[in-house]
Each structure stands twice: as C-alpha cells, then as structure tokens.
Amino acid sequence: TQLQQPVSLRGHAIASAVRIGHAPADPSASLEEALQRAELALDQARETGVSVLAFSPDAYGDPESRLSLL
Fold this sequence. Notes:
Largest sheet: 2 strands, antiparallel
Helix content: 40-55%
Strand order of the largest sheet: 1-2
Strand content: 15-25%
Structural class: alpha+beta
Shape: elongated
Number of strands: 4
Distance between the termini: 34 Å
Number of helices: 3
C-alpha cells in the first residue's frame, strides 16, 4: 500500500510502519476492558508485523488473566 512506501526527505529514504490494535465494541465491557483488549491486539500486531489486528476472545482467552501475568 501507499503507507508502506518509503518517503524521501532531503535526499534520505524514510521508511515507516503502522500497527493498529482494534477491539470491536462490546456493550457489556467497561472502557478499561475495551482499552485493554485493543492494547492486546496492538501488541500482537507488533509481534507479528501485521498492520491491523482485531481483538478476538477466541485468540486471547480471558484478557484480565493475561494482563495480570504482564
């Protein structure tokens, strides 16, 4: 995509990367839980090199127990 192309700045090629962690809306989740889920997805996107990764309870299990291990 266009975002993956290096940008030329004063004769230097500058490469950048974008990683996004996304947590689908869950009306039963608190704001803190939603942010924790998005952070887990962002961490996974960074680890795998995927540009956009959505939180999935099947993939992450119980986020509260996982975060307590961090």
